[in-house]
């Protein structure tokens, strides 16, 4: 039986890592992957451990996140001995082959009394515009430009999400579909509508909780499949507004989820159309509902753009807001920490 070993930060995993590990796994009977992490990493070590286990279920994937370990030979005179001990701590069995795409693998293999197998284009400087030129540093610097080199867990992490928010009959579903088509990406429809068409609109706490949780589950399940940007018809924050309106309080579960990168708050300034599943068409109730929906976004400090006007104006304002989000994220801006931008019809 031949045993192989690979270590790395995988911060984040990319196609170069995937090709190297799959190649290595084909050359041994057992392959161990050591994920190295430090406090303060952009992506937590334990998160990357879960990703690597998802990507390589046939391998043994372990984590080393002790901040005391030196990170480079110049950091400590016993650097190689320390890392030899770390490797043996996680892999007490003899190692036959050490795989790496960089030259350090030769020295590590020598200390482990293993055979070094230099895999991948990086070690030869080959394919600089493809797999051989990939690095996690480059991916972190421009994940948008490296999107096609990212496996699903990395895509789910980096993808941007835009959620339409607002009361009934403000054009959310129509606008969401048009935006998804414009950005050539996936659309997560509204679960609550399907739920109410089947079970009715007389929703209790358990119905509203399920609606919100199901909506979030669908959003997270769709993230790895989106084209950098995910469009959602709604999310649990709108279900929170429905809860406040229908039962007078908000279940805690509706507030505890990954928030979108941008919420498009559609104003209730278009005519109400009753399609059979809508509830609050009376003007005073509609205005109160609109106010509650806005309050939910303010309470959670959600990054918000208010969208008003006719349906064509709404599309143009939404597109401008999303383009700004993309530009700021690509430039390294953190939109979520900024005051909400408010686009209004001239």
Essential attributes:
NadR/Ttd14_AAA_dom, alpha/beta, Rossmann-like_a/b/a_fold, elongated, 5-stranded parallel β-sheet, Rossmann fold, 346 residues, 2 domains, transferase
Helix and strand topology:
Blueprint: E1 3-8, H1 15-25, E2 30-36, H2 45-55, E3 60-64, H3 79-90, E4 97-100, H4 104-111, E5 115-118, H5 136-141, H6 152-158, E6 160-165, H7 172-182, E7 187-188, H8 191-199, H9 205-222, E8 229-232, H10 236-247, E9 262-266, H11 283-299, E10 304-307, H12 311-330
Parallel strand pairs: 1-2, 1-4, 2-3, 4-5, 6-8, 6-9, 7-8, 9-10
Organism: Sphingomonas rosea
Domain NadR/Ttd14 AAA: 162-314
Protein name: Nicotinamide-nucleotide adenylyltransferase
Please give a structural write-up.
This protein has 346 residues and is an alpha/beta fold. It folds into two domains: 3-153, 3-Layer(aba) Sandwich (Rossmann fold); 159-337, Rossmann fold (3-Layer(aba) Sandwich). The protein is 41% helix and 14% strand. It is built from twelve helices and ten strands. The strands form two sheets. It has a five-stranded parallel sheet, sandwiched between helices. α9 runs antiparallel to α10 and α10 crosses α11. The radius of gyration is 25 Å and the shape is elongated. Mean pLDDT is 91; it is low at 333-346.
